Amino acid sequence: MVNEEAGHGFFSRLKNVFSSSTDTSTTDDTAYENSNNTTTTLTEEKAETEDIITPTNETVTTPAMQTADIIEKEITLRTVEVTAPALTLPDDQDLDIKFATKFIDAGGKFIFCETMKEAVDTLKMLKEEQGWKHVFCWENEIKDAFCDNNFQKGMIGYTIENSEAAVSLCESLAADEGTIILNPKQASRRRLSCFPKTHIIITDIAHLAPVEADALNKFKQKNKGELPSVVKLGTCNTGHFYDKQRLILNADGTEDIYVFLVDEIIPASLRP
Q1: Model pLDDT for residues 152-188, shown as the tens digit of each residue
Q2: What angle do CA 187, 257, 261 make, to 5 degrees?
Q3: Which of 16, 57, 134, 155 is packed most tightly, with the most Cβ within 10 A?
Q4: Rounded to the nearest 10 degrees, how much is the dihedral formed by the CA atoms of 191, 197, 202, 206?
């Protein structure tokens, strides 16, 4: 009879083999279950993750996007309505109107002429209307215009003493004050006791100045060492006055003054 107590017999070895096989199968089953469980867990976690990150048709709005939308809407809805009139700088083409308005309000007479010929023709009609026998002039530019337009040709013997009106040029017309700037010789003529009742000034648009200070500065640059004279109607100024420590002569004389403003430049005379 075979002793199996020591565990070394045939049946003992078969038992060990079946036991090992059973343990291995159990271990494999356990591993398989653990593997299935792990796979299931990973699959569930993956599904949960996909549920979180899976894009949808709905737009996800973040706080930053909400802020941007709010700012954009505020800028879109914001409007600014301008109620004040636009400010514009004075146009030089309006200086003649400004001067004429001031000058006429002060009692002067203003006539606008397109050309020098028109100015002479207007002076002819004015002479006839007023019954003047002679209009006295000094500057060669005016004498040239008279000759070119057949005005007072060949009239001899008339001087300033027996003339009813005198015509001259000027240095500047100040639009802001409606004043006339004369050179020293012209100013002295107005202070003559024999000066005619009417003074006619013919000038062109190049002699318009926006303000009186600019006209005086221009005179100072052109006439070094000379003193300007100012014709200012409608004021009670008597004697001379100062402007920025510069002596200005008050051009005393007649109050019956015409200004003929010519729209073309008066050419310089070629006479010696």
Answers
A1: 987 788 888 899 999 999 999 999 999 999 987 776 6
A2: 95
A3: 134
A4: 50
